UniProtKB/TrEMBL annotation:
GO terms for cellular component: cytosol. SMART domains: PKS_ER. SUPFAM superfamilies: GroES-like, NAD(P)-binding Rossmann-fold domains. InterPro entries: ADH-like_C, ADH-like_N, ADH_Zn_CS, ER, GroES-like_sf, NAD(P)-bd_dom_sf. One of its GO terms (molecular function) is zinc ion binding. Gene3D superfamilies: Medium-chain alcohol dehydrogenases, catalytic domain, NAD(P)-binding Rossmann-like Domain. Residues 16-363 form the Enoyl reductase (ER) domain. GO terms for biological process: formaldehyde catabolic process. Keywords: Metal-binding, NAD, Oxidoreductase, Zinc. Belongs to the zinc-containing alcohol dehydrogenase family. It comes from Rubrobacter xylanophilus (strain DSM 9941 / JCM 11954 / NBRC 16129 / PRD-1). This is Alcohol dehydrogenase, zinc-binding protein. Its cofactor is Zn(2+).
Amino acid sequence: MRITAAVAREKERPFSVEELELEGPRAGEVLVRVVATGMCHTDLICRDQWYPVPLPCVLGHEGAGVVEEVGEGVTKVEPGDRVVLTFASCGKCATCLRGKPSYCLNFFALNFGGARLDGSSPISADGASVHGHFFGQSSFATHALATERNVVKVPGDAPLEILGPLGCGVQTGAGAVLNTLHPEAGSSIVVFGTGAVGLSAIMAARIAGCTTIVGVDVRPGRLELARELGATHALNGAETDAVKAVKEITGGGADFSLETTAVPAVLRQAIDALGPLGTCGVIGAARLGTEAAFDMNDVLVPGKTIRGIVEGDSVPDVFIPRLVKLHAQGRFPLDRLVRFYDLGDINEAARDAEEGGAVKPVLRVGRG
Ligand SMILES: [Zn+2]
Ligand SMILES: [Zn+2]
């Protein structure tokens, strides 16, 4: 079928919006008419080749839409179902079988390989293959071909226009708190970086009952939003010694910290700001090969933990519907993060994301 999609053709160059051809669903695949799709930091670092996704490629991995057609053997959804698309996982490896699909042994190939595991891509332009299947979806497009494993059914009245980001950025931040760190009510957390991921973590920390929630950023507008969404304290890292301030606020260091910026010096701060037995969650995706330093004795003596967290340790079929309910109850106001763009304005959305003008750009593609 003919689709319109945004293609990343060259490293660090703007997306080009083109008419392409998309195959129908094979066995186990699900064709989704995209209603809206979020833009995540990972889309931009793949366009810029921090991660070696083969180009040209249709990126986009926070799609939400309506099922149009299912391939042979698909029983989870049927045409007409409303779905959020999330990361791909194989379902067969040891970590998938242990219920941790975001650490799937095939994660890189399935999500960043630009093709199905057999090497084929469902997308082409005038007969020439274009890489697709990015995060099992390639949703910067009017239609996306997903798989049964990475479509999550949501209620018929769910607001699809804003739900796409639950599939990656939002579950990454919220899940790090609710699935991984499990802060006790009354505990303290400091979140470095208040973009979409960090703000999702702050909203989740409020739900979990943290009574000290510190947001750290260098953009005053973001700090204001962090306060509105649940931060009890907001620190401008450009003006304040954040580690010293966190130790003062918490009386010795935070119980939990999250590093969402992928800046090595900020990871150091996130570790330094912890108190005894504190845990630092590492979430920010850095350029491959990036190294960071920390004081070994400052980890050893206070018994600190440093833990990498992918996709918020989410089991999407369980966790995304929970976030949809929390949003419906007004306890997880993710709509506050969203700014809408048309698919044709994708380069403006990317620029606003990079320059901080938009927390979470969402591209409107079709009718809800
Ligand atoms: Zn797996
Ligand atoms: Zn993402």
